[in-house]
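Exercise: predict the fold of this chain.
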Amino acid sequence: MLVMLIVVMYLTGCFQASYRLEKLTGISGVRLVIAVLMAAVLGIWLLRQRGKTLYHVCFSYRGKEHELVALLDTGNDLREPISGKAVCVVEESSILCNILEEKEGVYMIPYHAVGTDAGLIPAVKVHQVKIMDSGGAYHCQEMLLAVYHGRLSAHGKYQMLLHLDYLKERNGLC
């Protein structure tokens, strides 16, 4: 709603400026208004795309190779409490749906979220992780993946929320 209000105010100012420009110079302000409208639309689109960076993440789990599309989640502060290691989140339906049946190698990660004061989410450690984007590929020896029982993307564009720490560590610290 706030964005819409700003756009309306911006467009009102543009129309006033084009009217004054036409009065002063005699040149039609229509071209100016069109250019400003195009710039406003581009700016809104860029703002909406900010933070929606997608990555391809490949890893090995129990001897099988997997590949998921991940959304960089800059608001994810989920960590394994003892080591402090960052935890990514994957959809239950993606590949790790049977980890609740496993007894070994499952970490229970405490979390809180909107509507949940305190909870535990199961996680596993995966190995030989490769994170890819248009800038190249980054390798990690291991990564913790928590399993979310639901869909992360309404339209199925991604199946994983990538913790920002794994990109900060792309200089070999991972």
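Check your answer against the key: Helices lie at 2-25, 30-49, 165-168.
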